[in-house]
Amino acid sequence: MHLTKSTMAEAIQNYVKSLNWGHRVQLQDKKVKYFNLTGSLVDPHTVRGLTNAGKETVITAENIVIATGGRPIYPTHQMSYLVTNYMESCGTRFLKKCTPSKVEKLESGKLQVTWKYVDSGKEEMDDFDTVMWAVGRAPDTKTLNLETIGVKINSETGKIIVDASEATSVPHIYAIGDITEGRPELTPTAAAAGKLLAQRLFGQSSELMDYDNVYHAYYTPLEFTVAERETTQCYIKMVCLRKKEQRIIGLHFIGPNAGEVIQGFALGIKCGATYAQMMKTVGIHPTCAEEVTKLYITKRSGLDAKVTGC
Questions:
Q1: Cα–Cα distance between 27 and 21 in angstroms, integer?
Q2: Which member of 56, 73, 216, 235 has the greatest number of CB atoms within 10 A?
Q3: Which N-terminal stretch is annotated as signal sequence (predicted)?
Q4: Residues with catalytic annotation?
Q5: H-assigned helices in 236-274
């Protein structure tokens, strides 16, 4: 198999587009009206939205949930010493204690990067085929007008301060996900918190999100995975008793690292794990194993079980 940069970029872009489309379809199926606008808060019950052309739309609601996620920032955490050494042993060159100042596109199509060394102030440049922006993330809250209406944020991180129920300092305004202070920046964590919050707001439950023991994984060159495998080649099926507790009695998994995945779940099944417990488990994202925590479609329903989101 021959992999080119353009092929990889196209595959990534197409995959992201398919996820976005899947989410839009789910919104339509649930009869949720979607506004593609840049929003800011006017008061605890009002959002002002603008289109790219500047057209304004005002939306009011009893409750408002902020879940705008994050955007790239410069790194604030040190890179793992072991990972750096490993990458250097494979031929990766690291320029340490220097700050990139600009990236210019040359007539040849290459990108010329200029950087300055922090200690000496010396400036250098070089040409590259590709520049990847991988510098961490910051909460995307600057345009939301939070401080004007009284929503408290951490001045150092820019994240919104919430309580155990995801409530902010302003009544009727809630926040979940990467923009909240002290919460794991993980997609499954935000998704689980959002579902529980919706259930509480609509009076279906009083259960709070349990943020203890939410695990995650680091994806570095030390870990290898399977390439070029179609999603139609992978399959997961959970077998449960139809009684009230719905104890899990079997799990079928066809996909990458199936043996490693099943080994961990085998202990839970042996200990009497139930379907409800599995659905309350926050998956490690992005992994194949997390799909086991998202098995909502039953065979009897006749619905398409193909994954449409991440």
A1: 10
A2: 216
A3: none
A4: 285
A5: 258-270
Are the CB atoms for 284 and 217 separated by under 8 Å?
Answer: yes
pLDDT at residue 301 above 90?
A: no
Q: Structure tokens of 285?
A: 């994202």
**Per-residue pLDDT reduced to its tens digit, 187-201:** 888 999 999 999 999
Residue with tokens 């919430």: 162
CB atoms within 10 A of CB 102: 9
Nearest of 71, 118, 119, 115 to residue 93 by alpha carbon: 115
DSSP code per residue over 99-161: EEEEEEE-TTS-EEEEEEETTT--EEEEEES-------EEES-TTS-HHHHT--B-TTT-PBP
Residues near 15 by Cβ (< 8 Å), separated by ≥ 6?
Answer: none
Give the chain's domains with CATH numbers: 31-72+138-203 (3.50.50.60), 81-132 (3.30.160), 213-301 (3.30.390.30)
Q: Name 235's Cβ contacts closer than 8 Å, sequence gap at least 6.
A: 252, 253, 254, 255
Q: Residues of the chain with pLDDT > 90: what percent?
A: 46
